[in-house]
C-alpha cells in the first residue's frame, strides 16, 4: 500500500479477491449483489475486460472511484458487445460497396486489364502476391481452389477476395493516386483508415467504450475536414462540444464509420436495417438510465451519438 492506494497484486487473483479489490477501489455493489457479480466474473465476463470500463468514471484524490457501481460496468460491457457486432456489420457493408465500386470502374476503364493493377500495387506496396495467397495453400482451406488457380497471377477481383480490410484501405489510397485523384474517391481515401481502426478493435473483441469519455487524445487540428463538416451538421452541437467529442479516438473513428456508411451505402434496405440497429442500441443504453444520473461525461457521449442518429435517420 502506497500513499493510500492499493495496486492489484501481480499474481493471479481468486474471484473473491477480485471482489475485494473492487470494494477497496470504492466500486459499490448496491445495484447488484457481490454474489451475482462474482457469478458474472466466473461465467459471463472476465475481470480484465469488465473492469476496463472503469476508465470512464471519476476518481477522488485517494484514487478511489466516485459513484461507480459494478452494475454499471456490467451494463457498459453488454452495450459494448452489441456495438462491436454492429461495427462489424457496418464495415462489411462498406467493404462490399467499395470493392463493387472499384471493380465497376476498372471494368469500364479501357486502360485497365484487371491484372496489371495488381502487379503495380504490389510493387508500390513492397509486397508480393504470395503474401496474400500463402494462407490459402492448404487443402482444408475454403479458398484452396482460388489459390490453385491464381497463386501465380491474380486479377484484382481475386486479390479483393483475399485482402484484409487494412489492405483494402491501402489499396483505395493507391487507386486514388493511380487514377489522378478522382473526386469520387477523394473523401473515402481520407476517412477509410479511421473506420479500419474501429473495425479492428471490434474484430479483436476488444472494448470500444473503455475510455470513451476521455478527451484530447487527438489534436483538434488533426481532425480531417470530412469528419468535422459532418459533425457540424448535427443540430444543437456547439463547437466546443464537437471538439471535446472528436478528440476522443474511439468517438472520432465511430463518427467516421457512421459518416462513411451514411454517405456511400446507397441501398435503402441496408441503410434502414443498420440505422434501426443503431437506434435500438441507443435505446438499450437507457436501460439503467437513472443509475447514470451522476455520470455527466457518459451522458454527454450519449447525447452526441443521439444527435448523429437523429441526423442520419
Polypeptide structure, described:
This protein is mainly α and 313 residues long. The chain has a domain of 56 residues. It is built from 15 helices and no strands. Helix 1 crosses helix 2, helix 4 crosses helix 13 and helix 9 runs antiparallel to helix 10. It is globular and about 70 Å long. The N terminus is likely disordered. It comes from Paenalkalicoccus suaedae.
Key descriptive features of the protein:
313 residues, mainly alpha, 0% strand, globular, disordered N terminus, Abi family protein, Abi_system_AbiD/AbiF-like
Helix-and-strand structural type: mainly alpha
What's the total number of strands?
0
Strand content: under 5%
Largest beta-sheet details? none
| Helical residue percent band | 55-70%
Give the rounded overall mean pLDDT: 95
Parts with pLDDT < 50 across at least 5 consecutive residues: 1-5
Number of helices: 15
What would a concise description of this structure say?
InterPro entries: Abi_system_AbiD/AbiF-like. Pfam families: Abi_2. Helices cover about 60% and strands about 0% of the residues.
Task: Give a topology summary.
Elements lengths: L14 H10 L9 H10 L3 H5 L18 H38 L8 H9 L4 H5 L10 H7 L5 H7 L2 H14 L7 H18 L21 H8 L6 H8 L2 H16 L3 H17 L11 H17 L1
Amino acid at each position: 500500500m502506497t500513499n493510500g492506494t492499493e495496486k492489484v497484486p501481480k499474481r493471479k487473483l481468486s474471484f473473491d479477491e477480485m471482489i475485494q479489490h473492487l470494494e477497496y477501489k470504492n466500486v459499490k455493489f448496491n445495484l447488484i449483489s457481490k454474489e451475482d457479480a462474482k457469478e458474472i466474473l466466473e461465467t459471463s465476463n472476465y475481470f480484465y475486460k469488465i473492469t476496463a470500463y472503469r476508465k470512464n468514471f471519476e476518481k477522488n484524490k485517494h484514487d478511489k472511484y466516485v459513484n461507480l457501481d459494478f452494475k454499471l460496468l456490467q451494463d457498459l460491457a453488454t452495450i459494448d458487445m452489441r456495438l462491436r457486432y454492429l461495427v462489424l456489420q457496418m464495415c462489411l457493408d462498406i467493404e462490399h460497396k467499395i470493392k463493387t465500386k472499384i471493380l465497376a470502374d476498372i471494368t469500364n476503364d479501357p486502360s485497365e486489364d484487371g491484372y496489371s493493377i495488381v502487379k503495380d500495387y504490389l510493387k508500390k506496396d513492397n509486397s508480393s502476391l504470395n503474401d496474400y495467397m500463402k494462407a490459402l495453400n492448404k487443402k482444408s482451406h475454403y479458398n484452396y481452389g482460388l489459390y490453385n488457380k491464381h497463386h501465380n497471377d491474380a486479377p484484382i477481383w481475386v486479390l479483393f477476395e483475399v485482402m484484409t480490410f487494412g489492405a483494402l484501405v491501402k489499396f483505395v489510397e493507391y487507386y486514388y493516386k493511380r487514377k489522378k485523384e478522382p473526386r469520387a474517391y477523394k473523401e473515402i481515401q481520407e476517412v477509410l483508415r479511421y473506420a479500419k481502426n474501429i473495425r479492428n478493435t471490434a474484430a479483436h473483441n476488444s472494448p470500444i467504450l473503455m475510455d470513451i469519455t476521455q478527451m484530447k487524445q487527438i489534436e483538434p487540428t488533426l481532425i480531417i475536414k470530412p469528419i468535422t463538416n459532418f459533425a457540424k451538421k448535427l443540430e444543437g452541437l456547439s463547437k466546443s462540444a464537437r471538439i471535446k467529442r472528436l478528440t476522443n479516438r474511439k468517438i472520432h473513428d465511430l463518427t467516421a464509420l457512421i459518416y462513411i456508411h451514411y454517405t456511400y451505402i446507397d441501398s435503402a434496405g441496408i441503410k434502414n436495417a443498420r440505422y434501426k440497429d443503431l437506434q435500438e442500441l441507443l435505446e438499450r443504453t437507457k436501460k439503467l438510465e437513472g443509475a447514470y444520473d451522476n455520470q455527466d461525461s457518459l451522458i454527454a457521449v450519449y447525447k452526441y451519438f443521439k444527435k448523429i442518429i437523429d441526423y442520419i435517420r
